[in-house]
Amino acid sequence: MDFKIYFFYLLSITLIFNSCSPHINKASTAKKVTYPAAPATPRIQYLTSISSSLDIAKKQSAFTKSIVGENQTLPIYKPYGLFMRNGKLYICDVSLGGGLEIIDFETNKFNYFIPEGQYRLKLPLNCYVDKNNKLYITDIALQKVFVFDGDGTYITSFGKDKNIKPSDVFVNSQNIFVADSGNNRINVYNKETYKFEYYFPKSESGDANYLYKPANLTITNNKVFVSDMGSGDIKIFTLKGVYLKTISKYGKNIGDLVRPKGIAVDKEENIYVVDASFENVQIFNKKGELLLFFGGHYKSKGDMWLPTKVMIDYDNLKYFEKYVDQKFDLKYLIFVANQYGPDKVSIYGRITPKKKE
C-alpha cells in the first residue's frame, strides 16, 4: 500500500498551478508542489484548471483573426457534476440555462449542449456516460433522469412518476442507479427498459443504514458508495442494497466530514470525498482510515472554492501526462468541479515514483 503517510503532513499541504492538455493555453510553472508536502513521498500533483474555451482551443494567429474574426469565449459558469469518457469531459452547469459544457480534448473543441423544446433541462446536477456513449443527466428541478445518445439526440426520460429528486446517477452493465435525495434512498432502474426495479435501503431514521440526504454515488467492485450529506458520512452497500459499513462521521476534526458531496473510488478502493464545507477532497482507505486531503479554502491555484464533484479517470492520461513531474508516473486523473472562483474545473494527478532502471 503506497499511500502511507503521517497525520502531521496533513496540516501543511499547498498546491500550485501548471498545465495539462497539449492545447490548454496556460503556462506551466517550473516548480511542482505536491501532496503531501516534502519530505514525504508525493502522491497527488495539481496539474491545471479549465474555466473557459480559451483554456482549450489553439491560440488564433493574427492572420486567422483578420480573416474569420476572433473566436467567441465560452465560459464555464457554475459547474456541479462532471464525467470523463473517450476524451470528452461533460460538465453539468447549473447557471448555463439548462445545459452542459462538453470539452473534446482530442479535437480541442469546447461546446455547449443545451437541449431545446420539450427536452430542455432546468437544473442538471450530475451526469454519466456509459460505454455506448449514452448520456444520462439528473435534473433535480424537473425530477427526471434524461437520456441522450452520443449525437445528443433525446432517447427518453424517467423518474417523475416516483416523485424523485435525482442528485446523481451511475450506470453499470445492467442497471441505472440514481441517488434520490428527496426520498432518502437509491433507486435502481433497468438499463434496457428504464423501468423502476427496486430501491434501498429499506430503513427508518435512526437505523445505521438510513440515508438522510444521499448527494452522490459511485460503484466500484460491485459496491455502491454513497455520500450522505444529511448525516455527514459515507455509506457502502452491495448492488442489491445490503448495508456493509459506514465510513467517517459528521464533525470538524481531521477525518470528519461536514458536507460530503462528490465521491469517487479508485481500483484499490481508496475513497475520494468532496467536502463542500472544508472545501477539500479527503482520501480514505477501504478500512475508513484517512490517508490524505488536498485542496482547501481558495487562496491560489489548486485550492478549491465550493467544490461539488470529484471523478477518477484511468483512460485519458495521454492528454495530461506531459505536465507531470518527470520523476513520477501518472497513475490516474482526478477531476474536481468548483462552483466559484477562477478555477472551475481543477485536474490533479495520482502519481507514483518512477522505478529506477
TrEMBL record:
NHL repeats, residue ranges: 244-287
Pfam family, one: DUF5128
GO biological process, one term: proteasome-mediated ubiquitin-dependent protein catabolic process
Top-level taxon of the source organism: Bacteria
Keywords: Repeat
InterPro entries: 6-blade_b-propeller_TolB-like, NHL_repeat, TRIM-NHL_E3_ligases
An example molecular function term from Gene Ontology annotations: zinc ion binding
Protein's name in the database: 6-bladed beta-propeller
